[in-house]
Structure formats: structure tokens, C-alpha cells
Design a protein that fits this description.
The protein has five helices and five strands. The two termini are 15 Å apart. Strand 3, helix 3 and strand 4 form a beta-alpha-beta unit. By secondary structure, it is of the alpha/beta class. It has one domain: 3-Layer(aba) Sandwich (Rossmann fold). It has a five-stranded parallel beta sheet with strand order 2-1-3-4-5, sandwiched between helices. The protein is globular. The mean pLDDT is 94.
Amino acid sequence: MNVLIVDDSKIVRRVLDNTVRRFFQPPKWNSIETFQAENGKEAMALMMQEDIDIVLLDWNMPQMNGEEVVEAIRQNKDWNKTRIIMATTEGSKASVIKMIKKGANGYMVKPFNEEAVFKTLETISSRMAKA
């Protein structure tokens, strides 16, 4: 399982990285590798280099925001199976609906705790296993 964490906050990236690693640890999963990017441009460069299964994505970032990243991922047929989870402060119903329509598979509103992250990852990973 390869997970890309995209957020302009180093602290948020570190917390999510640790949480993701705890969720995907053996024996539940064979392996986990995480990657980090501080903006959408870095995220897209990593997407080109690595086979990413799940993207945890902030919305408000410099250079290329989360909405632009979702659009770019969904326009590339090679990334059809990549699951996108928004992890953002943008929590209005309109924001959630907008991103789901654009292709996000899940949504978490900051601040979130480990239980919320685990629940979202469980939902997304179980859907991936069925696909």
C-alpha cells in the first residue's frame, strides 16, 4: 500500500504519516510506504514517479491546491484506481459535495483524530479490496 500525504503543514503531514503507518501495519497489511508533498505540484511529481494507492489531500495549499490535484488525478486514466481522501478545514456541505463530484472518494474535516482517520481508511481500503 502506497499512501501520499499532501499538506502544506509539516506537522499535519507527520501526524497523518504516523497514523497511516499504524493503520496499515502488519499483519493486517503486508507493507506500507508513505510519501509526503507540501503542495500539489510536488504531489503530481510524486504521482508520476510512484504507484500511489491512496492520496490524503489538503485543499488550501500554495502553487497547486487540492481541487486542482483532484482534477489532475481524475483526468489521468492511469490513476483511475487511486483513492483520494480530502483532509481539510473546508468542511461545509457544499465543499464536501463539490469535491466528491470532482472525484474524491472520502472526506475528513480538520481537526481529526486517529479514530476518524482509521475509520476513513477502513472504508476506503475495504472498497479497494472489493474492486
